[in-house]
Amino acid sequence: MEEYTIVDVRTPAEFMGGHVAGSINIPLNEVVDRANEIMNLKAPVIFCCASGNRSGQATAYFRAQGLDCENGGGWMEVNMRFA
Q: Which residues are registered as beta bridge partners of 69?
C-alpha cells in the first residue's frame, strides 16, 4: 500500500470531535509557520478539513512550494477513502 500522510487543518477542538485515525492536526492558521515540518512529512500529503475549503487552501499553498499533496476534502470522506 502507498505511504502517505494525512494532515487535518481544522481547529484542535474540531479535531478532538473526530478525525481520521493516524492523521496529524495542524490548524490552517499554523500551516505557514509549520511549513518546514509539513514539507518533511511522508509524501504524498493528503490535506483534509470539514468540507474541503480549508484543506484546499493548504493544498494550493503547498503545491506552490513543490510538495506532492492533494486536497482530500472533508475528513469523513478521507476516512472512508483511506480506512
A: 45
Pair 33, 21: CB distance under 8 Å: no
* CA–CA distance, 74 with 66 (Å, rounded to integer): 23
Q: Where are the domains of the chain?
A: 5-82
- CA quadruple 28, 34, 56, 49: dihedral sign: negative
pTM (two decimals): 0.96
Q: What is the distance between the alpha carbons of residues 74 and 71, in angstroms, rounded to a whole number?
A: 9
Between CA 28 and CA 11 the distance in angstroms is 8
Residue 47 confidence (pLDDT) above 50: yes
What dotted CATH number matches 5-82?
3.40.250.10
E-strand stretches of the chain: 5-8, 24-25, 45-49, 69-74
